[in-house]
Automatic annotation (TrEMBL), chains A, B:
Acts as a magnesium transporter. This is Magnesium transporter MgtE. The gene is mgtE. It comes from the Bacteria. Keywords: CBS domain, Cell membrane, Magnesium, Membrane, Metal-binding, Transmembrane, Transmembrane helix, Transport.
Amino acid sequence: MPETDPPSEELKVSTPEGAEVDAPALLDHLLEVNDLSGLQRFVYDQPAGEMARAISRLTDEERSQLINILPAECGAYLVEELSVEQASDLLAEVSPAKAAEMVDPLPSDAQTDLISRLDDDEAEAILRELDPDDAYEVRRLASYEPDTAGGLMAAEYLAFFQTMSVREVVDDLRTNASEYQEYDVQYVYIIGKSGELRGVVRLRDLVLTPGDERIDTIMIRNPTFVRDQDDLSTLEQFFDAQFFQAAPVIDEHERLVGVVRRAAVEEAIGEASSKAMLRIGGIIAGEETRSMPAWSRALRRLAFLAPNIVLNLVAASVVAFYEPTIKRVTALAIFLPILSDMSGCSGNQAVAVSMRELALGLVKPNEVLRTLWKEVMVGLLNGMILGTALGLVAYAMRGEQFAWIGLVVGAALAANTVISVAIGGSVPLLLKRIKMDPAMASGPILTTITDLCGFFFALYLATLFLPPLPPD
Amino acid sequence: MPETDPPSEELKVSTPEGAEVDAPALLDHLLEVNDLSGLQRFVYDQPAGEMARAISRLTDEERSQLINILPAECGAYLVEELSVEQASDLLAEVSPAKAAEMVDPLPSDAQTDLISRLDDDEAEAILRELDPDDAYEVRRLASYEPDTAGGLMAAEYLAFFQTMSVREVVDDLRTNASEYQEYDVQYVYIIGKSGELRGVVRLRDLVLTPGDERIDTIMIRNPTFVRDQDDLSTLEQFFDAQFFQAAPVIDEHERLVGVVRRAAVEEAIGEASSKAMLRIGGIIAGEETRSMPAWSRALRRLAFLAPNIVLNLVAASVVAFYEPTIKRVTALAIFLPILSDMSGCSGNQAVAVSMRELALGLVKPNEVLRTLWKEVMVGLLNGMILGTALGLVAYAMRGEQFAWIGLVVGAALAANTVISVAIGGSVPLLLKRIKMDPAMASGPILTTITDLCGFFFALYLATLFLPPLPPD
């Protein structure tokens, strides 16, 4: 990918080392006094992280002011430095013509990422302003699912017909050097008559081979490739197994349609795992930043909390059903939250192990029984140890009152640990099989089921031990 | 990085498409009949993921049999395909001489990763068998902290003195082509007399520039670089802001000491976030796979569960203290687990948002007050909504008995939601400030504090509302 350099060195100001600039305050001030050259200097001068932080603090109006005041070239530099989310927010604030000018220096995959985040109307308006070839590539790339080889590939690659000579290829590279500046040239792809992939030539072999031979004599035949429909986990496995920095992408007719870079795949995996982490944390309604208004953030979090409170009430209904038992043995109320928390923790551990094994390919989604068995063994061991520990504590605390309470609480925790790890270990595999996110397993549903079972075990057993009430 | 190709095409057998091979069963069978050529075919033929899965299922004895029977060349191929964990397990099973032969084709950073996972004695024995230059590089790289530029960099790079001509550089590249095969050549670095970094020449500029000029006329001056001590988050920001595939690494004397590739950084970030996810899931004692024996996995999980049960007992002590209140209003027992779970969820959401903002650089570790304020606003809103909802449910369920119970439960949840998000949002920043893992915030400590507070609010308020007991 190309880098858009700052236009001149003079624009840079140096900050004495160690002197910390408060980027958000500085940007605020520059916008307030509407200092154009100061703002440009800010954009070219701040590290990307500081710039992202400062821009995330702006109000919608300030953001619009910033991007509209900056010349397109400086805006292009800014858009390259920021994350896709922040960059597309900025694009939405300017005229389609300026937006097109700002995305023009980017490679087609980056253009596609940015433009496809906009509303359809805005995207269409920008595409109409873009160079028609570029617009065609963006539309083509946007037609693929995001996390597939097609959706991640770039359209900037170099392909030559296999009948050309090494010299012809090198001459073409020299002649079009300035155009190819924006290409990430490491491999040159060799194609047959109708575009089908025949081989790969490493750039270094071009440097090292003098010129009259046919290019296909120095190409690597039967090159590895990925297919445009390959999903993220296939791509991950591919790049794990190969040390290539990029791979050609072919369509169903074996034609070369793009190039997917290792870095693009690594980045997509990183984003997917960061989303998974947010979801595990209970942030399900897309990405939240603290620059959003409080009510909108509250609403997003409620999307997770509101169903959760309902599920909690379902589990609590077991406790309500056995209220008479609690009335007679109030000590049980002390241990119910412990049962709930410990079972939840054991279940989440099993989910974490399953997710890791799925990610590393150490387990296949159809190996549910094997996983179940392996987890139950661990659950039995930990259930016995934890159950005994909690049982002894309960006996020590309330033995004088009800000698059997330790047994009841311990047995309930032991049994529920087995159930929790069995569910936690196997549900991620089942979710993966039906193409859902395995991280969903470590959520409120798991907790509800383990709560239900845990409360039931403890309270049912306790009721068994209680002598019948004397008739009124 | 180089790829070690299978030595000949004949070794490959093709599987009819769609016919699924059960890789673990096949490997098991091949080991049982001790079929050397079958095992070699298996290694060269299976996709990396299947091979990893099959090897993870082997017993220690089978693993040792496999790697000892394979010729070193095939073992080298295998080691390249597997993850560092699995590969270093295999290296530990063979003689130092064979291990050295197996790691020989790898670049120095991969050699270092593998060898530094072994015991000191084993590592030393392998280093003595290795080519002395390679061994020196491994020792040099191993002296850096793992997640720094020095720890992630490779020692294979091309550097030329600035006084050389373009032709001399190209001639050197041609002459040493076979040696440089194992280099990831995209940039050529230009150094001054004592090794200090002066500039960078892109390989494509070498291709495109004819030769008598001095190399420093076509180099990019003031090249971007990273310092050997830079940590992972600095490297992440660097590569986020730049589109380079690799960056030169310099030491405190500005001397070029290595090259760090974008892919190595992305991979290290991925590993760090996968470890963070495991820790959030409660797997703290290193990486667990289901091929480990059940008792050892149970023990590893207990490392997290055992302290957790103690913390749970601490929180439960509040409930024990107010047992007389529960005796009189048993309905409270129904709502305590709900309070505990809902507060935990709200707190974890705040942790997840803080971790994401820290990772993206949208918040700095010292912005605790700002984060606290932003979270408290969200906490107030959600606290009021959730508290009202739970309060109404409680009133509906038990209003006939104690009309005030809805108020007590609702107020406790509202107040505790504010506390949870305040802790959950700010503790990751504080942990980051003292260089600890912010993911630790979403753990048992958070839950214990929010449980303590939630139980206290509900039970203290309830006690206030209760009329004094008649004297015995």
